[in-house]
Design brief:
Elements: H1 9-18, E1 34-36, E2 42-47, E3 50-56, E4 62-64, E5 71-73
Antiparallel strand pairs: 1-2, 2-3, 4-5
Keywords: Signal
Organism: Trematosphaeria pertusa
Protein name: Carbohydrate-binding module family 52 protein
């Protein structure tokens, strides 16, 4: 008897779709938020699908404006 993986394929695809992606796992966000990434080289934006790169800085220059907490690239 041969193993038939095709009946399991929809189940595996559903499980993979339900798992959070490594890029957003444990990083909750509200759509419209911006922040510096973990290594301060990109500005990330949150949408309904999670965090995504909105802008890339030259090196590790992502900083926050005082008071507004809006990130920017402090490239000189």
């Amino acid at each position: 008897m041969l193993f038939k993986p095709l009946p399991l394929l929809p189940l595996l695809l559903a499980l993979a779709a339900a798992a959070p992606s490594p890029a957003t796992a444990g990083r909750e966000c509200q759509p419209g938020q911006y922040r510096c990434d973990y290594i301060s080289s990109n500005i990330e934006v949150c949408d309904v699908h999670g965090w995504h790169t909105a802008a890339s800085c030259k090196g590790q220059t992502c900083r926050y404006n005082g008071g507004s907490e809006a990130p920017y690239c402090h490239d000189q």
